[in-house]
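Sample entry (727 residues):
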Amino acid sequence: MPALCLRVALPVPRPDLFDYLPPPAQTADPGWVGCRLRVPFGRRQLVGVVAAVEPAAEARPLREALERIDPTPLLAGELWQTLQWAARYYHAPLGEMLATALPSRLREGAARHDSRIRHWRLTEAGASARTGLRAGGRPRALVERLATGSQDEATLDEALPGWRAAARTLRGRGLVETVAVDAAAALPAAATVAPNQAQQAAIDAIVAALGGFQPILLDGVTGSGKTEVYLEAIAECLRRGRQALVLVPEIGLTPQTLRRFRQRLGVPVETLHSGLADGERARVWAAMADGQARVLVGTRSAVFCPLPRAGLIVIDEEHDGSYKQQDGVRYSARDLALVRGKALAVPVLLGSATPALESLAAARAGRYLHLRLAERAGGAKPPVVRVVDVRRRPLSAGLSPELREALAACLQRGEQALVFKNRRGYAPALLCHDCGWTAQCRRCDAALSVHRAGRRLLCHHCGAEARPPPACPDCGGLALQPQGTGTERIEEALTDAFPAARLVRVDRETTRGRDGLKAQLDRLGDGPGILVGTQMLAKGHDLPRLSLVAVVGVDEGLFSADFRAGERLAQLLVQVAGRAGRADRPGQVLLQTHHPDHPLLLTLLAGGYRLFADNALPEREAAGFPPFGYLALLRAEALEEAPLREFLAAARELAEAGAGARALTLHGPLPAPMLRRAGRMRWQLLLSSPSRPALQALLDRWTPALYDLKQARRVRWSLDVDPLDLY
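Predicted structure, serialized as tokens:
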């Protein structure tokens, strides 16, 4: 009988499995499947996962693995099956899919982390060191807090932002230490809030679905109390001894969501996102795998956490594009959550005020249970929306006189306002008024954006930076002026107009670092003030004193060749408008535009997002676009265009030969809308079909053949199944 070999999935861009013999003095058996293995690979050592154990081919010698890392499978059961399914569906190498799913520590071969919660406490030396620390400093504040007893990191994050640097300093001096404790050792008291009638009906329907797979679309207007529904459903899930996974679209939402969940639920609430340290991510993953963690709130990658006692999966703001990975393995966390829910036999609750058209179509077809919350909770009224026609009107930094008057009145009432502009920086371009020259990125087909009031030029596509020239490089003129408006410029203009007002800017520049968004919102406080921000503020934030929302940049999204552009803009406008008037204050929304008669604006004003969806779905069906058609996008990039044309032409020939009689439409090869990005030329080929099985059947044969094309050696290519972005 031939010896058994280990078939290992490695994190390399090839679909193959690689065969190895077990390490010396060890014998392969089926119990190795799902275990990590350290193996030699060329001159390197890589960590992979055993995908199968099979008889070794006698014709070729095999190298021995170096180390079996896991005594028992790290990946097993439902999660192992789901990851294999995902690799097949997204046509990604299994090794890359597995590497995407694991925290970096585990991916690199570290031992499985202790799943217990880490508490900080004073040492004997620290208990008497308070007087030796500077009053008002963070080390002193941390020591004083720990003097009342040990505290877990989540509590310290909430109570003392920025404490971690102080903790490292104090630990180095032997004044504080950490100790691991079981999750059950410190449970906050649960609180309850009485739901209204509509919320209770939704809760009852979700609770009735517990114990089996059921996709549920919770379609609730902004401010209707969807989070309260989540909390009650999760509480019932916990009473049954099960786990709950809650996905949120971005890091900025996790602090606010965590605060509410920790105040209401009777168990510790874990979090998982890219802002955590590698060790903490590995600990949370292990805590979910061990069942120590009962509730997990996380961003996209949290969908890969083990759920051995799964009871409920929640996807908040399910429409958000952040759930789609845009590089590496291009998976959709929302779609994978549905796949996992079916495999685990648990409900999947998708919540949004502006559901994705795919989700709405599934609900209307009866594939999802459709629950509606049509009114705001607590008696709050929907905001009054007014279109401000700025044609032939004087604008200062993009702001109309009507908008400035509304801001002044809002501040006079002691309330808060949000000025929304979905473009960070000072201005989108630097222009010479004498000859028309524009500062362009040398690596992309895009203008450089102006930042820091003209002291820096930045490419928002590749990150390239440059200093503004002292004079125009073309004509030598000195008439260089920023063109357009970004959040920095609006902030500057409003600071001049309202010098006494508290003004906070929220964009990628001001929210870097751990809990950056929370820190900015804390700066605003409860008093009168103005928020200036990008779409980071459109998602799920509850600001009770916010009564005015002014959208400055409506026009930028009204005209686009992307078939999803209208949906994105409608969602963004409805979500931003929903920030206003969420408590007992009436809300007002101003939409500033040069196109007041645009059909999209008229539709939203007449019937909101529901009327928009009623009009958009038949248009999608007629065009064969999702959710009535299925897409796959082959992207390729190289330093020159010729290899791209050759590769994609060969890829098209393969697709045409493999399609046979199946319904398939090919678009391209075509240059990408932005031809050059980060110094590389980009082309693409789009495949569409009215049948998902037909498209997948073609991709099953087509994708392996792409690896073998000789033209593929000269390009960098990727396949995006169900793409959200065609650019």
